[in-house]
Amino acid sequence: MRKVTRGAARPAVTAVLLGGLVTALLATPVPAGAVRAAGAAHWQARAEAAFQKLPLLPTPPMGWNSWNKFHCNITEGLIRQTADAMVGSGMRAAGYEYVNIDDCWMAPERDENGYLQSDPQRFPGGIKALADYVHERGLKLGIYSSAGTKTCQGRPASLGYEDKDAQRFAEWGVDLLKYDNCNNQGVPAIERYTVMAEALAATGRPIVYSICEWGANRPGEWAAELGHYWRTTGDISDNWGSVVSILDQQVGLEKYSGPSAWNDPDMLEVGNGGMSTTEYRSHMSLWSLLNAPLIAGNDLRNMNATTLALLADPDVIAVNQDWAGVQGYKTADEGDLEVWAKPLSDGGAAVVLFNRGPSGGQVSTTAAELGLPPAPAYAMRDVWSDATTETTGDVRASIPSHGSRMFVIRQSRPAQYEPATFLDVRTDTTGYVDAGATFTASVDFTNDGVTPAQRVEVGLDVPDGWSARAQDPTRFDSVPRGRTVTASFTVTAPTDASNGAYPFTASASFRTVAGEQRQTPGYGGVTLAETPRGERWISDLHPLTAHVGWGRLGIDKSVDGKPIKIAGVTYAKGIATHAPAEVTYYLGANCSRFTAEVGINDETRGRGSVTFGVLGDGQKQLAATEVILGNQPAQHLDVDVSGVHVLTLTTGTGPDNNNHDHADWGGAKVYCAD
Ligand code: GLA
Fold first, then answer.
1. Which atom of ligand 1 is least distant from the CA of 153?
2. Each residue of 12-25: pLDDT tens digit?
3. I need a surface site. Which of 445, 516, 590, 645 has the fewest CB within 10 A?
4. Which one of 65, 235, 266 would you pick to mutate in the ligand 1 pocket, going by the greatest count of ligand atoms within 8 A of its CB?
5. Distance 561 CA to ligand 1 centre (A)
6. Which run of H or E residues covers position 110?
7. Kind and range of the H or E element at 134?
8. What atom of ligand 1 comes closest to residue 151's alpha carbon?
9. Which pTM value belongs to this model?
10. Is 235 a catalytic residue?
């Protein structure tokens, strides 16, 4: 896998360095000179002085927050029941501690003395009683306000009232403040957030300070000086796109993080229903590795066993709470396949092998790449399944779409554990085949461990209607350390199958030397796509994928359902997108030319600004336009696409946002061999 160069400042951390590094981090929890970069010595001094008086937070906070699931629909009853559920479910025992009330707890007006008060309908008993209730259960209470004149939901907020509000929070027994960014009146963030840090410090109560300015002002450079953790992005939502987009925004931020100073990629969505268990497990694995605050965002009162198991796995939490506090970071990236790793205080390393893509794939790294010293063997503990295997160095797995494997790797003596085994599922195609095609799928079984794998049997499952026939024997008596055996299958796709991605699942069963029966899973697949022949309108082909920034891909009409019309010229054929967009078509290396007239649809009445691009096989830029504005005449594209398997048509938003970016590909056509 291609290696990723880490974000600059933090030195490469190896196990050997850890002891010294940790001492340094605990002594100075704040990256030196961070606020200087923000250019405000006065505020830096004030921030540092205030933060010295706030409590330490040596490991990332764990708890629950009302926002992701309940938004404004909160009551004191919900908070009480959540505290009870945190205890009763075992979440408290797993380390979850803070019960955080988010926006909408306050009354619409301050009291006559200018103090915040709780909403009389929703929180009639007041926050103090709630804090007592939570404390009696061995938990802590968090509350919310905004560094603005109103909260994001329009309730009274703390800008200009910092002292009064902090004083009230302390009197009530509040243990944590999440401080948001709405209605901030344009006052610089460092000023607004420092004034509240000072107010919290002045109360004398140890209050954890959570800075929520959405990553808008490069918070890594100053927030560590005055808060315990800070949001790095906008709000998470309960879908896969949100998780991967937030993940991408964490790259390079690891240098700002350490004990009492944590990057916050936002709260967990685990258990809220919008993602599969596989996706939630990846979300939890990655957030844990990133030293994210583990703040559950689901309904703890009605949690099923799967959700609880995802939130409360002791080994996953132990990675997040490792006392060294070194944040995980991306170490390798090959398209959809990524490796994220985190050095641990005992000299081991945690790793997440991650497949964010639409089909199965193999993700690999090595003990050396994870910073472990040379050793004859390493123990690989799967933190989710609790199975430990051993490897002589390769750390790899076959992983389904949106899945991950999370291991903790440590040096060990050889022949201590069962061998780590690995399946690689490949085909002799480009990954794209026609309906009815026959091809070979091979499954490699490799013994990455020390002791042999015995009585190995390899199988391949294909979707309904497909057939897979073994070409040679699929049983192997014994596969010793370091050896690979291959089982090949003739696979035939049905003639009537529709286009799209088809997953294959492989499996190898074997016996360990102790006679235990084990299984190794493998994931692969192909995409069915028709190779275009002759001269074809693009709008008559089925796209492989179509991501459109707004509305739907228009086929021979605009995204508004009107004719494709650019600067007065109407095109009967063509496709219409809305920036930002990416649409892909299969050409199967059978076409030589692509032509189109590109521009903004007249329906925007002269508004909008876009760019158009053409890529070959996702990598090679074949054409790119300058910014095109509404009303400008169409630009003619004539592009050589010889040898291209997959054609990608992109539209960008131009220099502004994507308002009115109705981007048309008029008369788009490919010229292919018959
Ligand atoms: C902002 C924050 C969220 C949540 C809401 C409440 O959007 O980023 O986490 O607190 O406000 O209104």
1. 12
2. 222 222 333 333 33
3. 516
4. 235
5. 36
6. none
7. helix 126-136
8. 12
9. 0.86
10. yes
